[in-house]
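Schema walk-through. Below, the input block comes first and the output block second. Nothing else is stored per chain. Lengths vary across the set, and this one has 438 residues.
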Amino acid sequence: MQRILLYFKQVWNLLRQEKLFSTIYILGTGLSITLVMTLSVVFYIKIAGVYPETNRGRTLTVCYIAERNKDGRGYSSSRMSLQMFEACFKTLTKAETVSAEMMPESNENYVQPEGSRMQLPVTVKYVDPEWWNVFNFRFGEGAPFTEADFQSGITVAVISKSLANRLYGDEGAVGKSLSLNFRRFKVCGVVDDVSFLTSSSYAQIWLPYTVADKNDLNSFGSKTGSLGRFTAIILAPSAAEVEPVKQEFLARFRRYSSQYADEVTIIIPSQPLRQWEKMFFRYNLEDENFNYYLWLYGIVFFALMLVPAISLSGMADSRLERRLSEMGVRRAYGAKISSLMNQILLENFIFTLLGGIVGLCFAYFVVLTGKDWIMGIGSHGMPSQTDGWGVTISPSMLFNIHVFLLALAVCFLLNLFSALIPAWKASRHQIIESLNLK
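--- output ---
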């Protein structure tokens, strides 16, 4: 401990003695880390468990199916029908729960505030009661609609806090009437706002899909009745049990599709999808090579660290050249090469850590100022967003232990890349030559 405190004292003295070099090195490190950390924050927001999608690590999604004609000359594709959902998903025994979301043919929705001629555009999701078990919404008022509400087709709605404030001000929203597309709903619950970036759960209004137009609940354009407007979300009991749940579903799907084998071939390419796989999923008839994207972004991250590390290595080498006489004296008094290397690497890590703090602050600035476009990185497309509702990033998405640990790991690797070779060269320099430089 005493030795580490001594190293910190030496770094502080270096900062005071070489202000220009230290400033350039820290800022250079910060700018180098900015792009890496910007990408890291973007991917964290899209993949990690954030409100209300805190169960991302143990969810699977099926959002696309296709029926290929036996002659291979044509196919139909869409989401699945309610019939297929109930046959393949409702009977899963290894899943903790399974939920369905229905996407209506028309997704233009408007709220008519009381006493106003204004038409307020909103995003609406049609879901089932299990939806509230898959996603961990925070209810400020009321509660989600019940199974009885769902089965009865009662026109109830859960709305977001910002919409409730916009419609009802400081008054309680639960029990109040809501006019959606000139149809009356009763507000049963108010939840904390959901960010547009959590696209699986994002909306301003959540309704039971049993209140939707009956035509939207029926299958269409299919010989088997398998095509419709439903997306299925499976919640496994734990992250370790995701694969067994996936295999159970695939077995159920094979049995379901085999009964129509003489008519069409039903396919669900690359699915069920884990959260990170959804980022790269494209709607086509072929299985996606997700390993390709892992290698691609791995190479990009490596290059983003290696290129600046080469420049920083030159700066570190220049600084150590001026300290060769000091190292010569220490070696003459019996200091080990490993001790000198450890000191140099620790000193350089402190410089890199300071640069990492600067870089992380720059990354936060870039993400916050460019959030409307930068969140498209790594995706084949973003879902449609309702006019008048911007992209929001909550503090928990940015300031969390995972991002800080990742920043620390980046600093550590950048320190190794930039300082290991200069430290090795400096510590192994001949004692006599080092002393003559004094």
